[in-house]
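Listing S7. Sequence submitted for prediction.
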Amino acid sequence: MIVAVISGGRSSEHDVSVLSGEAVAAGVEAAGHEVRRIEIDREGHWSHNGSELQLRPGHGLLDVDVAFPVLHGPFGEDGTVQGLLELLDVAYVGSGVLGSAVCIDKVAFKQLIGQHAIAQVPFVAVTKAAFAADSTAQLAAIEALGMPIFVKPARLGSSVGIVRVADAAGLPQALEEAFRYDPRVIVEAAAEGIEVECSVLGDESHAEVSVAGEIVVLRSASPGGWYDYEAKYTPGGMDLVVPARISESALAKLRELALRAFEQAGCSGLARADFFVNGEQVLLNELNTMPGFTSTSVYARLWQESGLEYPELCERLLQIALRRRSEQSDYRF
């Protein structure tokens, strides 16, 4: 099988994507397949072996059988590249246009799971336009969440642009920082308990959940010591405790909520589900449809702890992509 591994991209998560792409390429090769690497630079240009690609709808992509877009953040994980691959007529790993778009937008995702009565952290959505029109009302709604709170760009990952706010005086500056990255911002109440993550693998007909891992922050660059960019990506910044130190009943609830959210959001292939667990209370925070994908990233490590090694994980994802493509070809849209 010939696999296009696509990495890089225009988002602020470009560097993380490059690392993930190299790991995926090695994993796909270890699974016995030929890899054709495609790099997307920060301006959005696609290239292969140093030559810029000319993409033509309906004409495929470098004659590959399937694409593995290891792209994080906007212009890659948000349904845009997924739509492009649909137009190119190429099977691809991961969620489709709708699932990708819903899950990258923290506001849209939380509104969706709220409709399905899935417990989550209280939040307020703020747009740059609404804040400019009536900042007093927006600030009052946010302050009603209590302190501390977390101010986040709605459509970024890897903790980019997130600010922890301990008192109301710091709120305008935190919003200004978040608006630098996205005109849509989400403000979340701080959750008690521990951060627990699990990995989901499958499609709409069958999905399974890995063992759960507990995030322990060892080094953070942010006040309050939360799970920021440095903790996630600096060696020694965090520890993953497997299995997570939660009760069997909390674990069962966490696994059930991960599968429900995966299904309701229309996900396929993979997702990492992030939770806050406080005793028996389990709150879903988000689904990440293309999490960090190095062999030491949380998603892959949790599957390894579940008995699924990295090359086999890549193989499973490729087969899910091909099966979805085959099933979709039966429909006359």
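Caption to Listing S7: primary sequence and predicted structure tokens for the chain studied. The mean pLDDT is 93. The chain has three domains: 2-94, 102-119+192-289, 123-189.
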